[in-house]
Specification:
about 450 residues, three-stranded antiparallel beta sheet, 15 helices
Amino acid sequence: MISSVSGITSLNCSIPVKNASKPYCQKKFFLGNAQKTFGLKPANILTHLNASDKKKYTFLIDYLKDLPVSYNSSNTPAKKQLDILLKNGRLLSKSKNDRTTTLDNLYDIATKEREYELDPKRLLSDTLDILCNPRIITQTFGDIPDIEKQRILSELPNDENLKKNPALMDVTASGTCAAASNEVNLADKYPAEFARWVSKLSAKNDPLYLNINLSSISKNRLDAVTILNLLDAKTENFSFDKVKVKINADKNVGIRAGIQNKYWDPGERNIADVLVQSAIMQLGSQNTYDSLTDIRGGSLNSNLQGLIEIEKTFVESLIKDKEITSLVYQKFDDNQNLIGYTCSFDKMEKHIKDTIDGGDDVIIGYVLTNETSGRTASQYYNPNTDGAPNKVINGHEITIVDYKTDDNGKTTFICIDTDDDSNNFVEYSADWLLPKLHHAGYPANIVEADEKEIMKNCS
């Protein structure tokens, strides 16, 4: 079920607080240098492919042989990345939507005509980078060269606002943290589906559709239809229990993707990031997003950037084709001061751990306050700046992919933060993160025992 209760109007990105990032090797999250071969000797793996898969794999190995090593690939050549994906089983993983494999969709990227004059080899390399290491996913837009700005402005029809204010294209603090977190989850848990999104979103005349169970949106069919209408989803072929949803990138995604195709710099979004984040923002923002300015409209969010909790959860439910319950953990007064919680920190921690143990990532939204009191107190706060206790000043979405517990029973969450300028995991102690946790999305069965009580405490 998607909750409409949030307590705050929206969550923005650009959080200045960073904990030390460090590499972390754990069991549940795929690592790009993994060499798992399921008991097969590497030399014999190809003999286990059917004729069609072997043909596609051999073609891609040859297609990628002269490709330069990507900056994002830890000096791993693209054909080696393909070999890694084969050995750890992700290359033959299948999409639930159309049963295509990761290999099928990578092959399509290489062999079918691309939209926006994109270089298929570069797009394929970008996709392999992310599939082998979802930690590189970022929401950093990057710059647009002046000569390209002039061309864009001359070619844009009927956009007087942008022509009067070209600086709108200079996105220095993007609002795509929720979209990027969903992208992390898509690439981490659904590699074939991630490759399919990239292929379809960049293809000529080959649209992207999701085949969704209505029960993944709500147990009540009428509620599911209401939510689809509320979010202005592009639906086709309604049946009693299923619906087909068309996923579009926004009208200016080709401009952003083309810039990254020609002018990408280290630390910026790659082409695949641009395409997938655009589509997620479109889906969540009632089809009002603009990649060129990172501005959205729509009736649900009064902020010009980002996705709010109900929008993020809607997208997450469709990506996973699984009912996601978004629990709101914080309570606020009318002045946006944090005044309490809807359940204990121990219960929050259990929800996260149970979800990770069940094989899912947890996308969370947390807030920073001016941190004047209680569990969020900060030694750096100057009380002369703002006398209001625990007033919300910022918010962010990240993905928890694992956790670890020390000998004293203290928990540390292992996260991917798409706005931390790092390709490593970031570690947040439960003591630091849980008091700041505003909402989190979970498979409905994980939290159904606590949902009613928490929702009641929201009011």
